[in-house]
C-alpha cells in the first residue's frame, strides 16, 4: 500500500524529530559541553593536565575537542552514501534512522559518566553522539519527499526547525538553572549539574524520537532476495550518483549549498570563539548569545518559508545569502558587546532561514516519485558535513597564518559570494522554474 501523502499525523511526527534531536546541537555541540570538556578532559596528577594522550599522541584537550568534530563529520561523509544505498535497496530506511538515533542518544547518556580525568569517555561519547545525530538526520530528511507534496515542503521544513529551536531552548534553560541556581536542586555541584544536563539530552532525544519512529512509514525492499544487500547498496549508490551528476540543476544547487553552508556552519560553530577571544566576552554573555540565535531563528525559518512561496526558493536563497554577506561584513567591524548581540540577532534570523529553505529546495529538486530518497539525501549530507569540516579548518588556518580572526571573517564573505555564482544559473533553468514557479 502506497504511503498517503500529507497525512497530518505523519507530517507532525516527522517534524517532531527536530524537537527530539536538536537538544544535542544546542547543549552538547554549542553551549554546555564545549565549556565543560576542557575542564574535565585532563590528565589527573600531571604538571600539564590540559595535555592528554590519545592513541599515542600528546594533544591539548581543545585540539582533541576540535579533532573529534572533524573525525565525526568525516566518518559521516564517508559512510552515509553507502549506508543510504543499502537502506534504499533493502527498504530499511527507518531502521537505519532508529539505529543512529539510539547511537546518538545513548552516547549522550554515557557522557553522564564523564567526570574529571575520564577523557576517553568524554571524547568517544562526544564523537559518537555527533555520528548518531548526523546519521539519523540523513534518513530523517529523506522522508520529506515521501510523506508530503512539494507545496508543503517549505512550511513543513520550517516547522521542523522551529520545533527544534523551541525544544532545545527549553531544555537548555532548564539545564542552565542547575548550573546558575544550584540551590534549587539541593546544592548540586557544577560538575554534576553539567553531567546531568548531558543525561537529560540523551533521555529527551531517546523518548521524543519514539513519536516519529512510530508514525513514519516503513519502506519496501527493492528485491525479494536480500542476501547481497551490500552489493545492492553499491548499485543504488552508483545509480543515484549517475542521476545526480547528470542533473545540472541538482549539481549547481549542491555546489552552491556546499559553499553557503560552509560559511553558515563555520559561523555557528566558531561564532562563540570570536566573542570570547576577539571581544573577550564573559561566559554568560556567550550563553545569552546562543539562546538569542535560537529564538530569532524561529521567525527567520517561517519568514523565509513564506518568502519562498512569494518569489520562489532560489530567489529566496539568493536574498538570504546576500544578507549573510552583509552580516559577515558587519561582523568584521564589531567591537562591543551590544553590537555583538545585534550581530547574533541577524545571524539567528538568517540561520533558521537558510537551513529550512535548503532542505526544502533540495527535496523539490529530487525527481518526482523518486524512491531512492535516502541515497539522494546522502549527497546533500556529504556536502553538509564536508563543508563544515573544510570551513572550520579554513577559518583556523587563516587565523594561524595571519594571527587575525577578523580576516577569517572576510574570507567567509568571499565564500558566500561564490555560492551565488552557482545559484544564478538556476534562475534561468526552465526545469527549475517548473518546480517552484
From TrEMBL:
Localization annotation: Endomembrane system
Keyword rRNA-binding (UniProt): no
Xref: InterPro entries: Atg22-like, ATG22/LtaA_families, MFS_trans_sf
Key word Transmembrane present: yes
One of the Pfam families matching this protein, by short name: ATG22
Topological category with respect to the lipid bilayer: Multi-pass membrane protein
Entry keyword set: Membrane, Transmembrane, Transmembrane helix, Transport
Main location: membrane
Taxonomic superkingdom: Bacteria
Residues annotated as transmembrane: 35-57, 63-83, 95-114, 120-140, 161-180, 192-216, 253-274, 286-304, 316-332, 338-356, 407-427
Coiled-coil region list: none
PANTHER family: AUTOPHAGY-RELATED PROTEIN 22
This protein's name: MFS transporter
UniProt source species: Aquirufa esocilacus
Amino acid at each position: 500500500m502506497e504511503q498517503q501523502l500529507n497525512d497530518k499525523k505523519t507530517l507532525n511526527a516527522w517534524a517532531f524529530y527536530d524537537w527530539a534531536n536538536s537538544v544535542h546541537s544546542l547543549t552538547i555541540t554549542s553551549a554546555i559541553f564545549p565549556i565543560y570538556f576542557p575542564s574535565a578532559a585532563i590528565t589527573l596528577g600531571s604538571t600539564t593536565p590540559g595535555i592528554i594522550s590519545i592513541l599515542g599522541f600528546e594533544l591539548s584537550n581543545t585540539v582533541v575537542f576540535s579533532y573529534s568534530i572533524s573525525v565525526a563529520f568525516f566518518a559521516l561523509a564517508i559512510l552515509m552514501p553507502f549506508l543510504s544505498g543499502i537502506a534504499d535497496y533493502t527498504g530499511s530506511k527507518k531502521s537505519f534512522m532508529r539505529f543512529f538515533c539510539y547511537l546518538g542518544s545513548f552516547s549522550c547518556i554515557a557522557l553522564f559518566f564523564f567526570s574529571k580525568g575520564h577523557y576517553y569517555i568524554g571524547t568517544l561519547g562526544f564523537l559518537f553522539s555527533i555520528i548518531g545525530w548526523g546519521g539519523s538526520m540523513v534518513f530523517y530528511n529523506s522522508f520529506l519527499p515521501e510523506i508530503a507534496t512539494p507545496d508543503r515542503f517549505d512550511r513543513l521544513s520550517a516547522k521542523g526547525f522551529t520545533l527544534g529551536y523551541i525544544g532545545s531552548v527549553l531544555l537548555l534553560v532548564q539545564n542552565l538553572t542547575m548550573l546558575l541556581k544550584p540551590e534549587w536542586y539541593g546544592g548540586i555541584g557544577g560538575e554534576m549539574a553539567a553531567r546531568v544536563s548531558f543525561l537529560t539530552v540523551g533521555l529527551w532525544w531517546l523518548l521524543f524520537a519514539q513519536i516519529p519512529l512510530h508514525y513514519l512509514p516503513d519502506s519496501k525492499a527493492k528485491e525479494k532476495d536480500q542476501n547481497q544487500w551490500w552489493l545492492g547498496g553499491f548499485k543504488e549508490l552508483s545509480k543515484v550518483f549517475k542521476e545526480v551528476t547528470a542533473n545540472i540543476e541538482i549539481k549547481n544547487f549542491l555546489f552552491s549549498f556546499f559553499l553557503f553552508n560552509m560559511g553558515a556552519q563555520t559561523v555557528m560553530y566558531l561564532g562563540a570563539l570570536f566573542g570570547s577571544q576577539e571581544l573577550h566576552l564573559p561566559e554568560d554573555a556567550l550563553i545569552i548569545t546562543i539562546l538569542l540565535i535560537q529564538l530569532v531563528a524561529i521567525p527567520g525559518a517561517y519568514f523565509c518559508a513564506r518568502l519562498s512561496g512569494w518569489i520562489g526558493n532560489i530567489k529566496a536563497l539568493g536574498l538570504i545569502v546576500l544578507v549573510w554577506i552583509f552580516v559577515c561584513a558587519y561582523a568584521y567591524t564589531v567591537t562591543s558587546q551590544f553590537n555583538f548581540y545585534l550581530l547574533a540577532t541577524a545571524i539567528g534570523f538568517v540561520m533558521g532561514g537558510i537551513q529550512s529553505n535548503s532542505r526544502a529546495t533540495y527535496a523539490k529538486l529530487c525527481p518526482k516519485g523518486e524512491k531512492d530518497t535516502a541515497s539522494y539525501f546522502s549527497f546533500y549530507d556529504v556536502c553538509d558535513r564536508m563543508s563544515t569540516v573544510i570551513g572550520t579548518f579554513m577559518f583556523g588556518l587563516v587565523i594561524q597564518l595571519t594571527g587575525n580572526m577578523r580576516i577569517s571573517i572576510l574570507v567567509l564573505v568571499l565564500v558566500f559570494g561564490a555560492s551565488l555564482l552557482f545559484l544564478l544559473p538556476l534562475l534561468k533553468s526552465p526545469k527549475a522554474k517548473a518546480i517552484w514557479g
